[in-house]
Amino acid sequence: xxxxxxxxxxKMRNTLFITFFIISCLIGRxxxxxxxxxxxxxxxxxxxxxxxxxxxxxxxxxYDSTGKNILAVSxxxxxxxxxxGNIAKENKEKVAKILSDIFELDxxxxxxxxSKRSSIETISKKVDKEKTDQLRIWMEQNGxxxxxxxxxxxKRYYPYNTLASQIIGFCGxxxxxxxxxxxxxDEKLKGTKGxxxxxTDAKGxxxxxxxxxxxxxxxxxxLVLTIDLSVQSIVEKYLEEACIDNLCTDGGNVVVMNPKNGxxxxxxxxxxxxxxxxxxxxxxELKQAWDNMEQSEKTKNLQAVWRNKAxxxxxxxxxxxxxxxxxxxxxxxxxxxIDKQGQFSCTGGIEVAGVRIKCWRYYRPHGSESLRMGLMNxxxxxFIGLGQQLGVQKYYxxxxxxxxxxxxxxxxxxxxxxxxxxxxKAGPVELATISFGQRFEITPIQLVTAVxxxxxxxxxxxxRIVKQxxxxxxxxxxxxxxxxxxxxxxKETSDKVLSMMESVVSEGTGKNAKVxxxxxxxxxxxxxxxxxxxxxxTSFCGVAPIEDPQVVVLxxxxxxxxxxxxQGGGVAAPVGGQIxxxxxxxxxxxxxxxxxxxxxEEVSVPNIxxxxxxxxxxxxxxxxxxxxxxxxxxxxxxxxxxxxxxIKEQTPIEGIKINKGNKIFVNY
Length: 668
Known about the structure:
- 36% of the residues lie in helices and 20% in strands.
- It is an alpha+beta fold.
- Among the domains are: 51-157 and 166-222, Penicillin-binding protein 2a (Domain 2); 601-668, Trypsin Inhibitor V, Chain A.
- Strand 19 and strand 20 form a beta hairpin.
């Protein structure tokens, strides 16, 4: 008996202990939930019971430099959603029917959304108010006041379609900037989302009668670009014509920069695309093949046209880079008199470390030259010799000063950097090729920025695309700071190089860039696009007006395969001249020599193939052109039988318009 009593008491004690332990755990858990996790769980409960429908803010407007022309704007549209739990079962089919009819949707898919056991389903985004008004009328007529939501939304619109497409960029369906200025300044442009909040149960049904809580969206800030609508339009017009006329298989680009403050007035790439439909085929050829094309191939083509070649693609600048070598040589005192005849001599080539590097006109050497003549003739040996005198270390110091070893930090996404051989690996041959612009690569924006340092008197200025940010709430205007990277060369050196550049256009290889009444300087360039590709890049960099430079223009054309050839003077320089002829009057740049410079007349190139040299010379002389025979030397020039030597090829070909005074190159 005694044993049984003790056993019962023990069981009771154990039971009480277990019960006390369980109660203690529960109390501890309740305390933890209430005191430690209370705030978090309350928030989670609120979120579960609150249905938020986002309100997209209006994305900031993008203006051109005048602040008047709109390049990108957000227009008001609407988004339609449904709360399936708030739509009566007997109404689901007719709701699905009207939604599919108005918004041209598949009925079965729409019915599936309306019938789902979810809190919210999106029916149609960014639709015009005209369609949502039809839905509002139907809802009123059918006595349906809940379960269908019509909320204000925004849609990005680009009034000028293709204009400045690679600069502006575009947005995704969620209004996020995906490229160009839209991506770079997304935080400034996008604004802050608002919301419509209401309490719901697990199925999305309303809880209580609190109604909806409206939290306003905050619109994004506006941007004022440095891009001038008119200048951009002019540049795109002539770039497109040049690429089509010269059959530039890889397109082209033009950059127009104000050298004084770094403002990019225009930056065009060809081909371009429609910002309002960035995922569509952008050429007639692609449109025909688009439907049968693999998605990977479509993506490859789209990414190619979205790419801003002026900042993302590198190339060999060719002879335009001789401006950098000339500037460094003058600044270092290697040349004090740019007109000293006989300081240089071209024998058709120069030997460097056992390697003979030819002048482009090796077959008819330039002979005795001054630095001015060397630049006008674009004579390679002159600049190779200057590079040798400077030496690798000093030359690379000027590359750094001209900001050619660093990105320009222009305010656009995707900027590439230059590709130079490391200083400690650059030998005599490498220095020689760099000196006349080959065997390294830079971006067009790097080159135009470097030339701007020469044009503005010797100071490096960082290029910029955005000049003002306007607060959407206060209207306060924030000016984007002009950034200077310090002095590169002296004003005296700058003046000498500009003077030589003027001679290049007035008498040298850049004659086709002349514009009546304006003092224009420039430099042409031709380079290989890669090694043994048989492709070329042709370019022209111009400055105007020489007496007070306000504009630097760089024209770059990739692989021109037309009958006009691939030389910078014959292909790219005319484009520079056309651009200058329209933008200088538009910018109200004074004509510094309207009286001194005669109007340059254009003439149409005649067909001289099949004629004798003598006959061709006579015809060309009558219309103001000269004949130049490729491959002829001073020795055989005297013995050439002009009456019986027949021309087999000519460049440019018949019908091309060029300025009087230019040369027609022939082979026999």
